Amino acid sequence: MPILSSYCPKIKIPHFYHKPASRFCPVKNSQKTECPNSLFPPANQSVAAIVFGDGSSSHTKLYPLTKRRSEAAIPIAGNYRLIDAVVSNCINSDITKIYALTQFNSTSLNSHISRAYSGARLPKEGFVEVIAAYQSPEDNGWFQGSADAIRKCLWVLEEHPVTEYLVLPGHHLYKMDYQKIVDAHRRNEADITVSVFGRGEDGVDFGFGIFEINAENQVLEFRHNVEMNATPKSKSVNLGSMGIYVINRDVMIKLLTEYYPTVTDLKTQVIPGAISLGMKIHAYQFDGYWEDMRSIEAYYRASMETIRRINKAYNFFDRDCPLYTLPRHLPPTLVTDAVIIDSVIGDGCFLSKCRIKGTVIGMKTRVGDNAVIEDSIIMGSDTYPHNGVNEGEANGIPIGIGEGSHIRKAIIDKNARIGKNVTILNKENVQEGNMEENGYIISGGIVVVIRNAVIPDGTIL
Question: Whole-prediction pTM value?
Answer without folding.
Answer: 0.85
